[in-house]
Structures are given as structure tokens and as C-alpha cells.
Amino acid sequence: MTTLPHRVLGALERFNDAHPWDHNAHYHRWILRQVPRRFDTALDVGCGSGDLAGLLAVRAAEVRGIDADPAIVARAQELTSPEAPVTFTVADALTGIPAAGPYDVITCVATIHHLPFGDALRAFRRHLAPGGTLVVVGLYRARTPVDHLLGYAAVPLNAATGWLRNRGRPAPRPVAMTARTRPAEMSFPDIVREARAVLPGARLRRRLFWRYSLVWRAR
User: Fold this and answer.
1) I want to staple 207 with a disulfide (CB 3.0 to 4.6 A). Which of 28, 36, 75, 211 is the partner?
2) Which of 11-15, 134-138, 172-176 has the highest mean pLDDT?
3) How far out from the chain centre does Cα 47 lie?
């Protein structure tokens, strides 16, 4: 992540463990600003405990969330109101996308680095309706000076955000953070190059907290 001294990193990790917060949920409101105010159908790939799917359901007629983990899908079903227009399914992100599409909105948060990147983007493109919006928030491997600079900046901000969100008190880990996350392998320049080859005109940007964003609108 960074090259800070081990003693400093150890202290920060202990602080973050005591004051955890969901880095992915931090971007949910931003994701909502990238999609229309109203749309018919949405697909959330790697839905986890269903938080983002629930937010999309406020704007959509129907939302489908898929995840490869049966336990987390069951948890999402428990946490979601039966009245919400959301359906959760255990499915593979490449081969198990529900055929109910095409979808007006497809979202994918902290999941695509578990998949063959180009194949995943091509699968999303196939299932996106004309004029639809794809929004990805992903993880990348820090390799460039800019990457490491953002990593340094994120460390104190991460601690401060955790302290503020938990009002200075120790807290349990959020449900969405209980699943294991594999470290990213692709660098940001590699992600940009491959994404634009599959999705011409895609907008990509490095983000704080070791994330990047990708937004693409189908023609």
C-alpha cells in the first residue's frame, strides 16, 4: 500500500481495526450521481450484503443483485425489505448474469479484480441496454509515483474517516467488510488501456482509499 515505517503502519492498522468503515459504501452516493434519476432495470454485480442494490431500487423498477458467495447472498436477502423491487441470486459474474436484461444500469464495486478483467467488461457490455450506464469502482495495484502519493494521502484520511464515522468509539466491522478481498494485480495504466480497448470512451480516474472509477455509457 505505502512504504511508511512498519511501526507507523502497525499503529494505523490497529487503529483502523478498532474504527472500521466500509470503503466501498463510501462511493455509493457518488455512483448514484452517475446514473439517471429514474430507470427501469439495474444489475449490481458482486452485490455483497445488498446496500447498493437497495439504493438503486429507490430509482429503478427492478434491481437484480448477483454474488458468487451463497452466504452473503442469503445475508442480503435478510437485510432487504420484501417490498423492495430487488432480487438476489447466487451467480457467476461472467456466465450467470440473469437473462432478464438488457439493463439500463450495471454497477460493479470491488469485484472486477477477482475476474478476468477484459472478459468481465465484455460481459457487462453485452448485457447493457443502448444508452445504459456502466459504473465500476475497483481496486488497482500501486506502481507509479502518483499511485504511491495517493496511498500516502489516504492513510491519515482513512484513520480520520473511521474515527469520525464511529464517533471516536471502537466498532464492529461492517457486514460488507467480513468477506475476504483478494489484492488487486493490475496497475491503473493497465486497467485504463484494457478498459478503453473494450469500452471506447470510458472515463477512468484514480480515487482515494485505493480505488479507481470507470464510467461508460453505451450507444
Assistant:
1) 211
2) 134-138
3) 9
Separation CA 91–CA 29 (nearest Å): 25
pLDDT mean over 43-69:
96
Domain count, the chain: 1
Q: What is the pLDDT of residue 114?
A: 95
Q: How much is the average pLDDT of 126-136?
A: 98
Query: Which CATH number do you get for residue 205?
Result: 3.40.50.150
* pTM for this model (two decimals): 0.82
C-alpha cell at 14: 490497529
Q: Is residue 109 part of a domain?
A: yes
Q: How far apart are CA 112 and CA 137, in angstroms?
A: 9
With a CB cutoff of 8 Å and minimum separation 6, the contacts of 213 are 27, 30, 135, 136, 137, 138, 203, 204, 205, 207
Mean pLDDT of the chain: 84
As a whole number of angstroms, the distance between CA 152 and CA 4 comes to: 8
Instruction: Say if residue 88 is exposed, middle or buried (CB neighbours under 10 Å; 0-12, 13-18, 19+).
Output: buried
Query: Cα(100)–Cα(64) distance, rounded to whole angstroms?
Result: 9
Domain residue limits at 136: 25-140+183-217
